[in-house]
Design a protein that fits this description.
This protein is mainly alpha-helical. Among the domains are: 57 residues; 46 residues. It is built from 8 helices and 3 strands. Strands 1-2-3 form a 3-stranded antiparallel beta sheet, with no helix packed on it. Helix 7 packs antiparallel against helix 8. The radius of gyration is 23 Å and the shape is elongated. InterPro entries: Cyt_c_biogenesis_Cmc1-like.
Length: 186
């Protein structure tokens, strides 16, 4: 539900799209029309599941932290060895760190993080498939080693079919990527 709310237009006239916040207080996806005049609220309007949005948010946060690494390190060095005096002794470093993160945590950066997440989708799918196949092989070895009965062939077949199922994005099953960057779906 939260992922869907991030892509709905902002109807509150008292706030701009950049000021809209989700329930947990973090900035949501851009809701105002970008200056490009495309009429779309975002370059990536496809709704994702909550876990997929969380993955995009992790990529976004990592990118922002990487861009502000020097400011974060300066604040951490100041805070090291202190307890309740941190807000007083490290105020300047804290303000620099927060202003850097606020400057880089833009809707455009969120769109770039989302594009990066989509670009890495096939790599993650291959890794997940290899991990599942290895798990099945290890279970088979375990059963042979301990002399346990073999797994039900129907159950094994169902597990292998599940591994081969394509990822669902936006409610559609994405089959494969074509050469021009678009994807075919069922």
């Amino acid at each position: 539900m939260a992922a869907m709310a991030a892509h709905t237009p902002n109807t509150d006239t008292g706030r701009s799209g950049d000021e809209s916040r989700s329930r947990n207080g973090s900035a949501s996806a851009p809701t105002s029309t970008p200056p490009s005049g495309s009429g779309m609220p975002s370059r990536n309007p496809l709704p994702l599941s909550a876990s997929q949005e969380a993955s995009v948010r992790e990529v976004f946060n990592k990118r922002v932290r990487d861009q502000c690494a020097d400011e974060i390190k300066a604040f951490a060095d100041c805070a090291r060895g202190r307890t309740f005096t941190i807000p007083f002794a490290c105020r300047a470093m804290s303000n620099m760190m927060n202003s850097c993160m606020a400057a880089h945590a833009t809707p455009e950066e969120h769109d770039r993080a989302r594009e990066e997440w989509f670009a890495q989708r096939m790599v993650r799918a291959r890794e997940r498939e290899m991990k599942e196949k290895r798990k099945i092989e290890q279970e088979k070895f375990h059963r042979e080693w301990w002399g346990l009965p073999e797994q039900d062939p129907e159950k094994l077949k169902a597990q292998l079919e599940k591994i081969e199922q394509p990822e669902r994005i936006g409610g559609k099953v994405v089959r494969k990527r074509t050469g021009d960057g678009s994807s075919e779906s069922r």
